[in-house]
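Batch manifest, entry 17 of 40.
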Amino acid sequence: MSQLTGLAPVSRPDARVLLLGSMPGAVSLAQQQYYGHPRNHFWPIMAELFGFEVALSYPERLQALLNNQVALWDVLQHCERQGSLDSAIRHESPNDFAGFFQQHRQLQLIAFNGKKAEASFRKLVLPTTALPKACSLLALPSSSPANAGMSRSVRLQAWRQLTTSSEQVEPLDNISRISE
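Output type: structure tokens
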């Protein structure tokens, strides 16, 4: 098993949405770019939702997200994993969300790119970290090419919730919030 370290967050203090994956895959880590695998659906979805060209350079795509008050990060700072599948992740340790939330008080929505990101956040972060006030959580289908059983249109429809106002987002069931 390889010991992996995730990427730094891409954010500005005015972020209203935080998109969380679990841990970048092997291609992404090698490139030091979020969602670097050419078959990952993440960037085509973001381009469609936020009105930019998917062919933009990586720094330009990141800037497009930042301009739309979207931050990008992963739940895990470190883990062990052979290959790129979430199911192979072992020995997880989370990123510093308490510090992140202190710097990003405008957050209204934390969205999870796939079930593993949501499960790791619930297990490792929620029990010990207060969420920003009025912040909802949203589970989204994975953008990974390994999630081949979902059509593009169904996946895109689910991800469209990112562009609705936070009052319209249906929060996840059984979210435990910790008082500040």
